[in-house]
Design goal:
By secondary structure, the protein is an alpha/beta fold. The chain is built from eleven helices and eleven strands.
Length: about 375
């Protein structure tokens, strides 16, 4: 794909400074609880979801800002019917979004609630009016949905806010991701992160292709993460081990409540376990280190070393009959065993004594 001239004649992604050079996250993974349609258009449920996200240990709550009229068109024609393989089959797009959207007059109350409990709040806008509304509300960052990654007018409008942007890349080709990144960068987006995403609901593990994370980071020089629609925590935890610094997962009070997103959403106890697993994975990832760590220091003594395994008289030659490399590690290191064979003892050595250079004639390594 050749990007249009007005977009970027060179067609290249400018490097971004301060991106982690290694796949190990530079800091704690940022975990986002996506409310999506799980508020069921009930304000008290939305408040409970915020409390549940906070209780589970999430860093942020994310909502979606649209109305049926800003995201689609009210038509019964076949073009607007959801396909048979859709989890929402039998509805038009307008019908679906009519049941899923979060009333805009709730946004200030939800933002205030998040501020009260101490959790970040942001949103995915689906058109320019939603961006303008969120700007008036004072959100600190934006999310771009995987389907909207190709809407360059929307991306430009978001980028001009000069706020951090998280971009889901589900279905996007390399060229489309590049086009999105350069569009945002060109109009002034300060920070851009990219989320690997499989836009299926739910997504199958064998369709996740999480090795793409490292390639995406290398190709676009941006922090990467995962927008996860799988069931369970395996994909998210694996993504963290592969370098993800952001994890987004849908949260519901209970799948039994239903709703368009319930089937692939986590309940509060499951979300809490996800957060715990991610934090444990971060701890296990650590950094690059060779040699013993603090917990291992005490066990160095149990490495094998060179010991006298019977009494050796002064002047007697060392051989396999009287010295061996055995545990513990109080004698000379095992690497010297070949060079000691055939040399002679400088003194009498009792059986079971760890060998040292003073016990060897002309003792030196």
């Amino acid at each position: 794909m050749t990007p249009p001239d007005k977009f970027d004649p060179a067609g290249s992604v400018p490097p971004a400074p301060q991106v982690p050079a290694s796949p190990t996250p530079a800091g704690p993974v940022y975990i986002v609880a996506e409310l999506s349609a799980n508020h069921l258009q009930k304000l008290d449920v939305a408040f409970q979801l915020i409390d549940a996200a906070m209780g589970a240990g999430a860093n942020a709550v994310k909502i979606q800002t649209f109305t049926p009229d800003t995201i689609t068109f009210d038509s019964k024609s076949a073009w607007f019917q959801l396909p048979e393989n859709s989890p929402w089959r039998g509805r038009t797009l307008y019908d679906l979004y009519q049941k899923a959207y979060l009333p805009w007059d709730w946004h200030p109350r939800l933002k205030q609630k998040c501020e009260e409990v101490g959790i970040d709040f942001f949103s995915t806008p689906f058109d320019e009016t939603a961006v303008d509304f969120l700007e008036r509300l004072g959100v600190s960052l934006y999310k771009i949905a995987s389907f909207e990654i190709v809407d360059l007018n929307l991306l430009e409008h978001i980028g001009r806010t000069r706020k951090p942007v998280i971009v889901s890349t589900g279905m996007a080709t390399r060229d489309e991701i590049q086009e999105a990144v350069v569009t945002l960068d060109r109009v002034g987006a300060r920070e851009i992160a990219l989320l690997k995403c499989t836009s299926a609901y739910p997504a199958a593990l064998d369709q996740m292709n999480l090795r793409t994370l490292a390639d995406m980071q290398a190709a676009f020089h941006r922090p990467v993460g995962l927008s996860d629609h799988t069931l369970g925590s395996v994909a998210a935890v694996t993504a963290v081990a592969l370098g993800a610094t952001i994890i987004e997962k849908h949260l519901t009070l209970s799948r039994s409540l239903g709703g368009p997103d319930a089937a692939f959403s986590m309940e509060p106890a499951e979300f809490k376990q996800l957060v715990q697993s991610v934090r444990e994975t971060e701890r296990a990832m650590g950094g690059v280190r060779y040699g013993p760590n603090e917990d291992e220091e005490v066990n160095i003594r149990f490495r094998p070393s060179i010991f006298a395994v019977r009494a050796i008289h002064q002047g007697e030659a060392f051989g396999s009959n009287n010295i061996k490399t055995i545990r513990p590690g109080h004698g000379l290191p095992c690497r010297y065993y070949p060079s000691i064979l055939g040399r002679t003892a400088s003194r009498n050595i009792d059986e079971g004594t760890p060998l040292s250079w003073e016990m060897i004639e002309n003792g030196t390594g």
